[in-house]
Design goal:
Length: 350
């Protein structure tokens, strides 16, 4: 078995609040292989961004802490480090260098008063120890690589002078300037129109095959996943409820929540305006983080749930197909509950 680039096991992240500890993730396990694109999908609040923050070593910045679990990351030099317990200095050296991030809204992550060339060059100087001139050269090269016309001229532009799509390209250029082995993209295209969205996704795919980096692609939109990802992890209420290759997941979803998500993908003829729509076709709501049901978190919304064990015991991940790595957290996946829920949804929709 090849060693994964990133292997997350049983990740619990807690945020203290007056009413008690809110768990952003409740035992997330997943792995990303070198060069792979793994999509993380799920409704709002399912723990996608918290998982990304944990990988970046930024949970404490958001007022939380990693309570349990390991995040084993293979560094460029071949050494493996647990990002959950690594020293702050090590995490800083990895962040923005070996693991880079592109956020949803570039305007909040770009410095409005610094020319974009300065911002990229600063990242390069910091992580690669290059001098001023050389770093500027790398900045120009990277801008050209992400398809920004007249890159030398653009080095002196300020972020507000660029369009949304161009700013997103600059963010990607910054993220790529250090040739990371893992790029995390948290809802990178939701703020963009559909045509620009497609261009950005194409660009990332091209660059990925060029550099050989892995991508963790966070989205609530399953229709984008089919276009970009090799593997998919479906998140629900802070847990990874199903992990599979894109082919397995679409052809053979085993978790009733996954099946319901697939049913909620807009039809092709309605696709243009529906790509931004939140996944709202599933009846019921995600349980409140301070009032998790004692059994399966999806049981209250599941047509296939039975009192015992679904409402009493928390399911653990079970292998569906060990040769493809397909796993599911459902007691009743063998009984075809995914199909039952999908049928019920179809009936309700028509
Ligand atoms: N700083 C924080 N303080 C308290 N709770 C938090 C904090 N950040 C996240 N959470 C909680 O952790 C859970 C997971 O949040 P997260 O941001 O990871 O969701 P998400 O899947 O990224 O959702 P979205 O699709 O809306 O971005 C939510 O219940 C959220 O309320
Ligand atoms: Mg998020």
């Amino acid at each position: 078995m090849t060693q994964a680039l990133l292997d997350i096991h049983d990740l619990w992240v807690g945020f203290s609040s007056e009413a008690g500890t809110i768990h952003g993730t409740r035992g997330v396990s997943l792995s990303v292989d070198t060069g792979e694109t793994l999509a993380l999908v799920g409704e709002s609040g399912s723990g996608k961004s918290v998982t990304a923050l944990a990988i970046l070593g930024l949970v404490e910045h958001g007022g939380g802490r990693i309570e349990r679990g390991t995040l084993m990351f293979r560094r460029r030099d071949g050494a493996t480090v647990d990002l959950a317990t690594a020293a702050a200095r090590t995490r800083r050296a990895i962040r923005g260098n070996e693991i880079a991030m592109v956020f949803q809204e570039p305007m909040t992550s770009l410095n409005p008063v610094l020319q974009i060339g300065e911002q990229i060059a600063e990242a390069v100087r910091l992580h690669q120890g290059l001098g001023h001139r050389a770093a500027r050269g790398v900045a120009e090269e990277t801008l050209a690589r992400v398809g920004i016309p007249e890159p030398r001229k653009r080095l002196t532009s300020y972020p507000h002078l660029l369009s949304g799509g161009m700013r997103q390209r600059v963010m990607i250029a910054m993220a790529l300037s250090c040739q990371p082995s893992l790029l995390i993209m948290d809802e990178p295209t939701t703020a963009l129109d559909v045509t620009i969205q497609a261009q950005i996704l194409d660009l990332v795919r091209d660059l990925q095959s060029e550099i050989g980096m892995a991508v963790l692609f966070i989205t609530h939109d399953l229709s984008v996943v089919a276009e970009v990802a090799d593997g998919v992890v479906v998140m629900y209420a802070g847990q990874a409820v199903e992990e599979a290759t894109v082919e397995d997941l679409y052809a053979n979803p085993r978790h009733p929540y996954t099946a319901a998500l697939l049913r909620s993908i807009p039809r092709l003829d309605r696709r243009a305006d529906a790509t931004r729509a939140p996944l709202s076709a599933i009846p019921g709501v995600v349980p409140h983080p301070l009032a998790m049901p004692p059994g399966c978190a999806f049981a209250p919304r599941c047509d296939g749930a039975v009192p015992d064990p679904c409402e009493r015991t928390r399911p653990s991940a079970e292998p569906v197909n060990s040769s493809t790595g397909h796993t599911v957290r459902c007691f009743r996946w063998c009984d075809g509950v995914a199909g039952t829920t999908a049928q019920a949804q179809l009936g309700a929709a028509e």
